[in-house]
Structures are given as C-alpha cells and as structure tokens.
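TICKET #2291
ISSUE: user wants both folds in one file
ATTACHMENT 1:
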Amino acid sequence: MEVSISPESVAQVDVPVEGEPLTDQEVGEIREEVEPTEERVYEPQTKERTFAETLRMFEEGAFDENDVGVQIDAGWYDWFCKDSALARKTKTLLQRAKKISKSWRFDNEKTYIFFKNNCPVEGSMYDDFRICDIETEDVLYTVVPRREMKVYDSRRRAMRIEEVTAEVWGQDNGFAEPLVEGSWMDVVRWFNDKPSS
C-alpha cells in the first residue's frame, strides 16, 4: 500500500502493515514530507525599539490595525487568545504601560517592552507586559495589570470572579514572589513613587 503524505509530494512512502515498526529510513522520509522546511518564527521587533519609542508609535496609531504582523511588531511574543483579540489587548496594555513609563525604576530609553497572553493550567487566561534591558535583553519586570481569580459558585452553578489583582514580578527579588500585589493603582504607585530617603 502506498500513501502520498502531501499533495505536492512526488515521493511515495510505503506504509508498513499494522504492527510492523517503522525503520529509521521510513521515519526520516515521512518527516521530510510532513515537517516544514522553513520554520515560521514570530519575533517581536521591539528589541531594536525602546519602550519610549513604542509608546510614541502607539500614540501615532501605528498598532491600531487588526493584523497579526502589526501586532507582532507592537510587541506580541506569545498568545493563546484569538488573533483578532490582539489589537484590543495591545491598546489596553500600552495604555497601562504608559502610566508607569516615566518610572524611576527603569529608563524607558534603555528598555523595551513585549506582551504575553498566558494560559495557566489552573485559572483564567491573563495578559502581561515585560520590561527588558535593551542591551542584555534580561527581563527587569513582568507586569500583570489584571488577573482574575475565579471560583465555582455552586448556588448559581457557574464560575464567578472572586478577586481581581494586579502584580509586578521582577529581578529585584529574583522573581521569587510579587514585588507588589493589589490594585492597578498600587502597581502605578509602586513604579512612580520614590521611596522616602
């Protein structure tokens, strides 16, 4: 029995009878047909663009288009949501990032920002943005503007939001625990209020 792996393929692969293990050569032939020859990797273009420049471009409407390429250029690195949700999420995250962009804790001309949509094993999906050193590419801070904790309400037989928090994780403590956790305003204050000397 012969099977064509892809319509474009001219190579035919003999499929062994059920129970017969594939030889290394057969596995290699199948891989050549199935695996793409050119891997498509989305890499945000933010490493060459400072946090401050990203915000300027945002203000000029550079990331308004609901196109995956535009959103990757805005700074999306990883996501589990629909592609069509990225433009709205970009707007929300950059509006939040703007509130802390003049922080004394980092230099917005020596850092860049990227976005991640997280899908934890337990709990709801949530978005964060990461502030990175432009030279070393080290993540300095991971900022979660809004994270919902949901619990099952047996009376309503549905999930309900129990708590909404914002968090900042960072190099300051080796990402061991949140540097600040509370409301979004707590996060803004933590970034913008200099400690008393």
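ATTACHMENT 2:
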Amino acid sequence: MIFLGVFSTFAIGSSPKLMDKMFPAFVGASSLSILGLFFGLIFVFFYIISPILLIISSWIFYLILKLFRGQGSFADTLRVGVYSMTPSLVLVFLPFVQVWSLVLVLIGISVTHKISKGRAIVSWIIYLGLIGLILTGLSFLLSLILINP
C-alpha cells in the first residue's frame, strides 16, 4: 500500500496539468512541494492515525465479543489484531497473505476469548457490518458538510 501511494504520488507529481486539475488550490506550486505534502500526510496517517484507529476498532470488536460471551480482555483483542495483521502489512503485495491474516484473527480470537470458531466467524461478520455502517454514516455526514458549507 505504501509503494502504491509513493508511485501514484510520483505519477501525479510528474504531470503538471494533472496536478492543476486534481489540486486547484496548488496551481503553480512545484511538484516537490506537493510531494512533500503527500509524504507528510502518509507519515501522519501511518504513525499517528492508524494506531488510534486500531485501538478504536479493537474496542468495538471487543464489545461484540463480549456479546458472544468472550472471556478475553481488551488487551487480548488488541494483541490478536496487531499480531494477525502484521503479515498483511509487511507482505501487502501477496494476495493470499490477506486471507492468512483473517485466519489468524479468527483463530486468535477463538483461543484468547475461549469461544468456538463459529462464534468467532459470526462476531467478525457482525464487526465488519458495524464498521461498514459507521463508515457509511461518516461519509454521508462528510458529504453533507462538503455540499452545504
């Protein structure tokens, strides 16, 4: 994912006309200043926002697991999330690694929260649905704000 962001940034930065269309506020700005902005945003996202989002999503998943009578703690849920997603973050370019990370999540949740693998799968599906609803709601609110300033 980082590689794709870097390559797309260089592709956009190498075409001044494309930059002027995509970023009208930066018309006439140098490509290097735009690249610096993108690398700064990538840094902020990966090192500041991502850990916050990981904690929030682990908390939501933990609450769902408690509904399924999971016996693990929030720290267990966070630990499983970090350990299971590490292979997919490191080897993002290999498609089967994403599936392996999902398998690790389901097995890790099943073991740490002492629930069956079926309950782990159902809780994961509910978690994905809830995250989807939250993101849909946030994007709707954002579109309302941007359309009617």
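RESOLUTION: both attachments delivered.
EXTRA DETAIL ON ATTACHMENT 2: DSSP finds six helices and no strands in the chain.
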